[in-house]
Amino acid sequence: MNIQQHSGFYVVGVAARTHNAAEKNGKGKIGEIWHTLLRDNLAAKIPNKLGIDLIAVYTDYEAGRDGYYTYLLGLPVSSIHNIPAKFVAKHVPGGRYAVVTSNRGPVTRVVPEIWDRICSMSAGELGGSRSFRADYEVYDQRSTDPEKAQIEVYVGLR
Asked: Residue 77 maps to which CATH number?
């Protein structure tokens, strides 16, 4: 397992509260967040952005993987000052993260597959126990074609 230690950073974008059961039964909010950000080209309107890779942050967990959490899709930023009202800023805390790379394929298939894989891993396989403070996905140049996407998931560890 690839374990990385890094300092914290901010992500600004569009967010909503959801939970895994709603996402699996088609009543979730993640698809809507993607649609909103991409349809309205909101990423271009985020100030102070650092790069073009989209980041999906899972944070504010209520009860581990089965409770509600905040899902934010946006871009890393150098500052959260002067953020327009339609955006939300979240801090990804520094610490240890297990980096798990998805298979390549349709993004609608590879994202649930990688999370199923992560959730079935023991603490030993993952490199530590999940912290449930923040996890995040990176959508870089390997995911520009949604039919041949590959993402990295950074799983926060204690």
From this structure: 3.20.80.10
Sole residue written with tokens 């209520």: 62
Q: How many domains are contained in the chain? A: 1
* Count of helices and strands (H, E) across the chain: 4, 8
Nearest in space to 67 (alpha carbons), one of 19, 26, 115, 10: 19
Q: How far apart are CA 115 and CA 121, in angstroms?
A: 10
Which tens digit of pLDDT belongs to each residue from 31-74? Answer: 999 999 998 889 999 999 999 999 999 999 998 888 999 999 99
Q: What length does the chain have? A: 158
Res 53: pLDDT:
95
Give me 87's structure tokens. 């955006």
C-alpha 38/C-alpha 27 separation (Å) is 20
User: CB neighbours of 80 closer than 8 A, spacing ≥ 6?
Assistant: 10, 12, 48, 89
Q: Report pLDDT digits (tens) over 20-32.
A: 999 988 899 999 9
